[in-house]
Amino acid sequence: MSDDGREQTGHERVPSRQRRRFPGISSRAYEHPADRSALVALRKLSGFDTVFKALSGLLPERSLRLLFLSDSVRVSERQFKHLHDMLLDACYILDLEKVPPMYVNQDPQPNAMCIGLDEPIIVVTTGLVELLDEEEMRAVVGHEVGHALSGHAVYRTILLFLTTLALKVAWIPLGNLAIMAIVTALREWFRKSELSADRAGLLVGQDVKASMRGLMKIAGGNHLHEMNVDAFLEQAEEYEAGGDLRDSVLKILNVLPRSHPFATIRAAELKKWAESRDYQRIMDGHYPRRTEDKDTSVGDSFRESAASYADDVKTSKDPLMKLVTDLAGGAGGLGGRVRRGFDGFKSPAPPKDGPQDTPPRDEE
Question: With a threshold of 0.85, does the pTM exceed it?
Fold first, then answer.
C-alpha cells in the first residue's frame, strides 16, 4: 500500500505492497534535462499564460472534452473501478491535489495521452487496457499523471492542433513549412517529455520490471512468454551502435515525425535512470519541492540540458555521434574514417602493405 494504505478521504489503495509517497514533489525531480529546461523557460516567460489563454479559443479543447464525454467511458467508482483506484493512487503518491478526469476510448491500438489547456484529461484506449496487467497499467497511469504534474498537457494539445493545422494549410506556399518547423521542434521536446513521464510512472509503480514489461508489450504485444527483457534491451544497444553513417542518417529521419521515442530506447533510458543515484535519492526522500519552483534558474536548467546532450553525444555508440565526438576532439586519422563512413563506419579499413593512417580503435 502507499504509505498507510489510505488516502486522506479514507479511500482504500489497490496494491497490497508498501510503496513510498512523495509529498510536495516537484516535477523537476523526474524530468529529463531537455524537457525541464524548456518548461522552466516557458514558465518564466512573461505573458506566456496570457498567450495560451488567447489560443484556447482557437483550439478544439472544448470539442475534445465533449467528444470524450459523449463517446467514451469516464473512469469512476462505478466504471473501470480498478483504473479509478490506480488514478487516485498515482495522484496520491505524486501529491497531485486535483485528480484529472480519465476516459477509456474504444480503440484497438494501445495508446494513452494527457491533453487539455485549462485542465488536463487522461485518455487510455481499450487496446492498452486489455494488453497490460495491473502493475504494468499502474506505471502507465503514473506516466500520464506525471504529464499532468509537469504541465505537459498544454503543449501536447498545442502539438495536436498544429499537426492538424499543418495538413489544412499544406496548399499555402511556405505556410506548411513554417508550421512544420514548429511541429518538429515540439516533437523533439515531446520525445524528451515522454522519458520524463516514464520516470514518473516508475515513481508511482515502484516496480521497474513492470515498467519494462509494459514497454515490451507495447512493442511486441501480449506474448511475454516469447520475450526477454535482457534481449529487448540488447536491441536498443544494437540499434544505437549498429550500421554506418547511412544508418545514422536514416535513424534521424525515422524519428523526426514521431512524438514518442522508440520502445527499446525508452526501456534502456528508464533502466539507466532506475539504476542512477538521482532515482535513489528520490526514493530516500531527497527531492526538489514545488515550493522551490519559483526560485528555479533558467540558466541552470539550460546548462543542465546542454550538459545532458553533450553527455549523450560523448557516450553514444552511434557512428554519426562518434564522428561528432572525433571532430570535437580532433582525433587523428579522422579523414580516413569519414571516407570509409558510408561503407561501414564501425570497422577500420584493413591494413595494407605500407603504413596506414588509421585511427585508434574506439573503446567500448
Answer: no
